[in-house]
Amino acid sequence: MDILRTSRDLGLVIRQRRKALRWDQAQLAERVGVSRQWVIEMEKGKPRVELQLVLRTLNVLGLILATGTVEGMASSAASSEMPLELPDIDTIVDGNGLRPDEHRATAMTLGRRKPQKAV
């Protein structure tokens, strides 16, 4: 099961599933009831696509959306890639307005783990 952290991650999963079904963007758009341009933007990770349309897209593709906790992931898989400290969602969303060179700097900052305080 994929762990999605950004709208770009979700778009990639949707694109991979569409391609696995051998559908083009126009076919997916028709089945979902949206424009091909909407599919293009969603697959690229546009952060402000309508949630109901994303859920409809997942349903059309036969994908499920599951939720869980970071603690549950860490306890079920000791070698999990899930970071102990998640990036701030506002930083991720606001980062979409950056130039490409700024995205790299932001992504590098978000990927760093902060030192844990001793208890």
* Amino- and carboxy-terminal Cα gap: 33 Å
Enumerate how many helices there are, as a single number: 7
- SSE sequence, one letter per element: HHHHHHH
Strand content: under 5%
Low-confidence stretches: 103-113
CATH architecture label name of the largest domain: Orthogonal Bundle
- Which structural class is indicated by helix and strand composition? mainly alpha
CATH level 3 topology of the largest domain: 434 Repressor (Amino-terminal Domain)
The number of E-state strands comes to 0
| Mean pLDDT score | 78
How many domains, as an integer?
A: 2
CATH class categorisation of the largest domain: Mainly Alpha
Instruction: Estimate the helix proportion, in percent.
Output: 55-70%
The coarse silhouette is globular
CATH superfamily of the largest domain: lambda repressor-like DNA-binding domains
| Radius of gyration from the alpha-carbon trace, in angstroms | 17 Å
Summarize the main sheet. none
Domain HTH cro/C1-type: 14-64
Protein name: Transcriptional regulator
Organism: Stenotrophomonas maltophilia
Pfam family, one: HTH_31
SSE topology:
Elements: H1 7-20, H2 25-32, H3 36-43, H4 51-61, H5 70-76, H6 89-95, H7 100-111
Helix pairs in contact: 2-3
Overview of the structural elements:
One of its GO terms (molecular function) is DNA binding. Residues 14-64 form the HTH cro/C1-type domain. Pfam families: HTH_31 (PF13560). InterPro entries: Cro/C1-type_HTH (IPR001387), Lambda_DNA-bd_dom_sf (IPR010982), Tscrpt_reg_HipB-like (IPR017507). Mean pLDDT is 78; it is low at 103-113. The protein has helices spanning 7-20, 25-32, 36-43, 51-61, 70-76, 89-95, 100-111. By secondary structure, it is mainly α. It folds into 2 domains: 7-61, Orthogonal Bundle (434 Repressor (Amino-terminal Domain)), CATH 1.10.260.40; 79-111, no CATH class. The chain has 7 helices and no strands. It is globular, with a radius of gyration of 17 Å. The longest helix has 14 residues, at 7-20. The two termini are 33 Å apart. Helices cover 56% and strands 0% of the residues.
